[in-house]
Amino acid sequence: SSSLTEVTVFVKRLRRKTDLSNMAKTMRTVLNSNSKVTVLRSDLHAVIDQGFLDVPGNLFHMKFRNLDELQNNVELKCLNDLMSLLAPSTDIRVLLNCVSSNLQAFVIQPSRSKEEFRKVASDFQLRWNFLLTAVSKALTLNYADSFG
């Protein structure tokens, strides 16, 4: 019961931080346009593959081509999974299910106690926010067509 409470709090916190309803509205517009999805995918791959993510440490200097390293980096795996699903007319629920599945597999299930769950969840949330901030910054600074 207390585990379920912790999971619920974590999910609510993630929803607040990412503002899923606004993201869903924006993504529906993007996902309904073949050209916008193509440009977005291209821009995302460019900022990641070309090393434009300006974040201290080696966390963001990995290439997605190295699957072993990717498996050790949950937030990069989550982003890669989302990017692989990006296609024109992708239902936003598919993307949300992807995030949900990854959270279940990498954050919720591995936690053996309430304290461990809190640590794993807060670590993931912090790194996920850093990653999304770094991607947004890279898209902005590189005048990516898809940004904005």
TrEMBL record:
This is RFX8 protein. Pfam families: BCD_RFX. Residues 4-148 form the RFX1-4/6/8-like BCD domain. GO terms for molecular function: DNA-binding transcription factor activity, RNA polymerase II-specific; RNA polymerase II cis-regulatory region sequence-specific DNA binding. It comes from Ibidorhyncha struthersii. It comes from the Eukaryota.
